[in-house]
Amino acid sequence: MVDQNTIEFAKNLALEAGKIILEAAEKPFEIEVNNHSDFTTSIDKLVESYMISKINKKYPNHCIISEELTDNKDVIYSETVWIIDPIDGTANFIQQKINYAVSLAVYHRGEGFIGIVYDPTRNEMFMGIKGEGAYLNNRRLALNKSIELKDAYICIYWNKRVAQWVNELELFVRASRLIGCASLELSYVAAGRLDICAYYKLFPWDYAAAKIIMEEAGGKITNELGEPIKLFEQNHVIAGSKLLQEDLIQYIKQGVSNSMQV
Known about the structure:
The chain has 262 residues and is α+β, with helices and mostly antiparallel strands. 36% of the residues lie in helices and 29% in strands. The protein has helices at residues 4-24, 42-58, 90-95, 165-172, 182-190, 204-216, 242-261, and strands spanning 31-35, 38-41, 63-66, 80-88, 101-108, 111-119, 124-129, 133-136, 139-141, 153-157, 175-176, 196-202, 220-222, 235-240. Strands 3-4-5-6-7-8-9 form a 7-stranded mixed β-sheet, with helices on both faces. Strands 11-10-12-14-13 form a 5-stranded mixed β-sheet, with helices on both faces. Strand 6 (111-119) and strand 7 (124-129) form a beta hairpin. The radius of gyration is 18 Å and the shape is globular. The termini are far apart. 41% of the residues are buried.
């Protein structure tokens, strides 16, 4: 059983972070360009510092992995680890002021216990609690749709230089939908707004919280070979209902096999 105090602390922390983002976004803020499509803002750093300080004060013996400020990547599986991203979808935040989220997860000995993805602009909190299910605000989430891959709404970010099957897949499925925020897109699959997601190299802070939400909703999330995701590492990520996820992995394997024969 997950400690209720920790659940409430995590929920409140995500809500507080979202409030800070919304208030700070109304004022001028600094933007750092890391590369052509990767940005960091002063608000990312502000919110991350706030979240880290709150976690350290409440749980001084816990480890923290975060995108912007910390280099604490060499955590061990025996520790309790918080994996946070203050603004997942920073480019969207800068350009659109929507389609971004606060992502927060708690893992213990490599196992996910609490996952929260909070969209402050829509006041939507996706949450997964180990053994207690997944929720969107107060609505229970259950991935029980039964559809074929050709009828799926897919979200796919893949390196097309190394995967010839990507273009064919986008033509094969019913439609492709891209948001630009992995934690939200994965949460949308758990909520039934998308059917399946496929990503080329996500960092832990991109998938850690949504992984718990997905699994507690009854979905499946693995790498492109159908193997368990290696926590705390970059991973290719395939996520959806169990049958649809397995169908996509077989499609990928077949596409890779065909490309090797060319």
